[in-house]
Amino acid sequence: MLLFSFVVILFTCFLPQSAFCQETDSLPAPKPISQSIAYSLGIQESTKDNPLDTGLADVHYYDPVDRHDFLFRNTGALGSASFRMVCCEQPQMGFEMGYRQFDLFRFTKQNVPFYNNKRPFSRLDFLIGLKKEQTVNVVHSQNIGKKFNFGFHYMRYATTGLYTRQRTRHNDLAFSSTFDSKKRYLLKTIFILNNIRADENGGVKETNIFEDTSFVSKELVNIELENAENKQREITFHVYHSLNNQDSTRSKTWELYHEADVGREQYDYADTSPDSAYYGLFNEDDTTVTDYSSQAQKVFIGTKAGFRKFFRRGLIIDASSSYSYNIVQQDSFTEKYFQYADAALSLSSNTERMFSYGISATYSFLDYNKNDFKSSASIGYDFDKAGAIQLNASYSRIEPALLFNRFAFGNISWGNTFDKQSTLTAELSYRLPKYNIQAAVRFNQIKQLAFWDASRLPAQHSGSLHTWVFELHKLFRINYFGFDNVLRVQFVSDKNFLRYPVYWGVHSFFYERGVFKGKLLTRVGVDIRYNTNYKAPGYFPLTEQFYLQDEETLSFYPALDFYLLFKIKTVRLFMKMQHLNQGMFKDKGYFNAYKYPAWDRTFRFGVSWMFLD
């Protein structure tokens, strides 16, 4: 039945007389404000810039948890720890500590945008909601002369939360700069300051809070932790520069590049009123200890150098090598030094060609990550009006993050020697822009899976696990009406270790048109999201890890949001009533994770304003 729904929607899109698939001018695709403003993500060179999106489709998705194609869930409050709902993420090469549950709210050298604009450009995104909920996103980019560009980026996510001890306040800054000689030399820099702070309540003690009518205010609900908090602080500096040679047509023939990084990451946990029943195996031996705290820190310096050779017909060969030196300190463990070094080789084609391909391999040969390996291959063909097909495959064999093998706190410590985790992924995808359709099927095989068990301790599966994931994204348009759909079906070989919902859907019904002679673009609609029953993970704030739990299965619950969007010139506004259908079912609410309930019905207002002066 689940797969049948995919087939029906896919088949409908190819009916030649289908009203759902006819092109219409009533809902034009978003266009950039100006052809002179575009951006690329990350510090390394990009061969293609992205135009600014000024449409209404995603403006009300203010929370990064929703913004990433609904791949994530959090622990109930804006800015709280998040986890993936879809299997499985390919591990990355490099030395890794393991504290990544707040990554959606951090600047990194991969997600800072670099703008290409001939005139000053600024953007202000602002949202306010109940419980002092607030998001702020400020961007300014300006050219100084014809060769230098400066960028400023600020993000803030904050709320007091619906339940006690859910307050978050994240403040991130990034400064970027680009010097482009327009001939042979390019220099890009990023300076990042991330400050993540999240109160931790350990979840609610009773999971029947939506059945008990005595809880007039959610602040009266009993929680596990009364005075716990997580902090993450990061300061990093990244620089990338390249020197190239060009032929008579100003096309590159070769390029030398170099990248350098230096920085510090700090992870602090503190609980001034610890509950021994909650911490269990992690209790302190000393009964006189009244405060629990755990600190971890990484100071690093890294460098990478490479050479690219450009051939006719779009072939590019890239050879590089990187090295990093990491100084790690964690609680009672003495300071330890970890080195990382790798060599990489890739062959790829120009992605703008009809036929594209690529192959790459990276091998690490030093210290903790010695003998780590990752390879990938891709091949694609663009049939123009008939769409484009892409086949991607990757294989990695990588050491689990340091936290799996090395940790000490209170009455517990471990010094594991886990095997490397192997991950094989193959994906076949198809997109047909003319009919607003994207489809993919993905196979994952994982050997020696590293995970956190029901005791909140690191563990490793000794065998092989595999999953199948089917995805479909289809937008129907009929005159002024739209129906946008994201559907996912995933099957796992062993639900004891891979716990994900089998079926997951997100649908948006909307009506959009211009009023006042087309000067005010308006969209009114509803979003509905749901998933089948599954055992969602628990969350342990001390280690900042999501773990397998066997106590409760989260049941099917469709959540409905109503929104109203406006756009006039460079200003976009939205009003959103989230969880509109609360109280319409037997269950008066739902949980995002074990013991972590989602928000009740709430109202939010936001604005996104672009300035072009």
Mean pLDDT: 88
Morphology: globular
Structural class: mainly beta
Number of helices in the DSSP assignment: 4
Kindly estimate the percentage of residues that lie in beta strands according to DSSP.
over 45%
Alpha-carbon Rg, integer: 25 Å
Main β sheet profile: 22 strands, antiparallel, barrel
Helix content: under 10%
Q: Which stretches are low in confidence, meaning pLDDT under 50 for 5 or more residues running?
A: 1-34
List how many beta strands DSSP finds: 35
N-C termini distance: 54 Å
Q: What attributes characterize this protein structure?
A:
613 residues; mainly beta; 4 helices; globular; disordered N terminus
Summarize the structure.
By secondary structure, the protein is mainly beta.
Task: Describe the overall structure.
By secondary structure, the protein is mostly beta strands. It has 4 helices and 35 strands. The protein has helices spanning 2-12, 64-67, 276-279, 402-405, and strands at residues 37-41, 50-51, 72-74, 82-84, 113-117, 121-129, 133-144, 148-159, 168-180, 185-200, 228-246, 252-271, 292-310, 316-330, 336-348, 355-364, 373-382, 388-398, 406-409, 412-415, 421-432, 437-447, 450-452, 458-460, 464-478, 481-492, 503-515, 520-531, 538-540, 545-547, 559-568, 571-578, 591-593, 596-597, 602-611. It has a 22-stranded antiparallel β-barrel. The longest helix is centred in the N-terminal third of the chain and has 11 residues, at 2-12. The protein is globular, with a radius of gyration of 25 Å. It starts with a helix and ends with a strand. Residues 1-34 have low confidence and may be disordered.
